[in-house]
Structure formats: C-alpha cells, structure tokens
Amino acid sequence: MPPSTTSSSGGKLRRILAGVLIALVILGAYAFLHLGTFLAREDPITKADAIFVLAGTELDRSLEGIDLFLEGYAPRLVLSREQLEPAFAAIGRRGVALPSEVERARDTAVKLGVPADAIVLPDTLHGSTASEAITLRSVAQENHWRTVIVVSSKFHLRRARYAMLRELRGTGVQVLMRGTRYDVARPEQWWKQRGDIRDILSEVPKFAAYALGLGA
Prior knowledge:
This protein is of the alpha/beta class.
C-alpha cells in the first residue's frame, strides 16, 4: 500500500477515536450533572387512596406524609416499621421503654391533627425497600386501594420506584413517588454538598442492583 494511503487511513482512525473519546466525555459530564435529578425523580401527585411512608428517617419522611394527609391527598396514612437496632432490646431488658421511630411518627401525626383511626401501622419489621414493597402490595390489595402515594427521601425515589413497581406488577395498583420537602438534598447540584455526595455514592450501587433485578 502506498505510504500516502496508509497515512490517510491512520489519520481517519485517529479522528474516529478522538470523536468517540469526546462523545464519551460529553456523555460522562451529562450523566454526572444529572445524576441527582435522575435518582430524585418524583411524580405529580393527585388524590389517592393512601399515603405510604417508607421508614428510614426520624421525621423527614413521616412529616411529609402527615402534611399530605392534612392537605387532603388521601384518607389513610401508612407508616412503615423499620427493624430496630439491637440496643433497643438491650435497653428494654433493663426496664427502659423507648418509643420506636414509627411510634414517634404516629404520636406526632395525632398531635398535628391526623385521626388515630386513619393511621395504619403494618406489623412487619422492614430491613429493605423490597420488603416494604411486599407490605405495600399486601395492604393495598387487602383494602382495595388503587392509587398510593409513596413518600421517601429524594435520592431514594428512583430505587423505591423500581421496588414498588416490581412487586405491584399485575395488581393494578398505581404508585406516585413523592420526595419529602424536609429533605435538604439538592439534586440539581448534588456535588456541592458533602451529605449529598455521600448519599449519592451510597445510592448508586444499590440502584444498579435493583435495575439489574438483584435488589432484595
């Protein structure tokens, strides 16, 4: 092959590789900038049959659920129970009774005006979002609910959606994902807050596992 032809082919290959590299850099930058909003995707909410508050925070999630109830979005408020730390049992054996997260949330709801008989406290203790999805399916089918607002933290919304939709497939139950207004995360600029960076680094591998069908 003449040298000029070889040089031309090599130049074309370098231009292709450079173009691919530039495209990858652009895609990577776009993904980086939009990662927070991707994970924090929520739905426009409408009137529903119930509000289901996922466990995992002291009051940020439950207070959002309480507010939505008081704003008239649903006639039932479901508070999910989280597995307690072993220290709770140890303290109980010493004769000291401490209210759990869900008990504090229930008491707060009642004090803020939610009727006690409108609050649903499933007995199941949950150690994962997937187990909460199973509980949601159970209580929704038992009560013939068709639409449920699911409340969580902002960066947890995308993964929670996967878990809920996977478990509710075929039931006809619709979920509307809602991030609590009391979550100080800033999805649009997540790289500017240390707490957001920490939450993102924790959430991304968990979301990847759910997206691949591995989340439990």
